[in-house]
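For reproducibility, we list the full input for the protoporphyrin IX containing FE complex.
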Amino acid sequence: MERRTLLYGPAVVAVLKVAVTAVTFLLGASMVALWLGKPRWHGRINAVCLALTYATLGGLEVLMRIIQPGIFDFIVSDPVALGRLRLHLAFAVPAAVLFPVLLVTGYRGPRRWHLVLACVFGVVWMGTWLTGILGLPHD
Ligand code: HEM
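The corresponding predicted structure, in tokenized form, follows.
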């Protein structure tokens, strides 16, 4: 008989919360680097943040589409939790799209675009973090 080890969906959500919080701290550190007049470090730290975020998103896609489809059914089947997930995605999707654009505009310019998009990114990232931490069930 085939035996499969199933991952527990709420535990995956808890791990994702820790991951988003860790990247939020790193983003804060990149702001401190700017404040200290070290834009190179700002760029390097943010490149690491982007790599970590995309690696996590890639892993999440593989997990929920190939390895264990239905892992988040406990959210999708609950109308309240589903509403909270939709709110979370309304911030998380724009944040994921803007992230690489910020890396490119940071290195290549135009500087003005980098600064304007950085403000929008700051809002959508904080929205992602808050709606994830406070809104999504992990127990
Ligand atoms: C969220 C608020 C952010 C602010 C206020 C901000 C601001 C700045 C400023 C003032 C510079 C220096 C630009 C120059 O001297 O021409 C800079 C450079 C840069 N930023 Fe940002 N940034 C932010 C977010 C990000 C993010 C999220 C990324 C990457 C995903 C990023 C990547 C870069 C890179 C790669 C550079 C060039 C560093 C270098 O010269 O080596 N920034 N940023």
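The helical segments are 9-35, 39-67, 73-76, 79-108, 111-135. The chain has a mean pLDDT of 96. Both points were considered when choosing residues for closer inspection.
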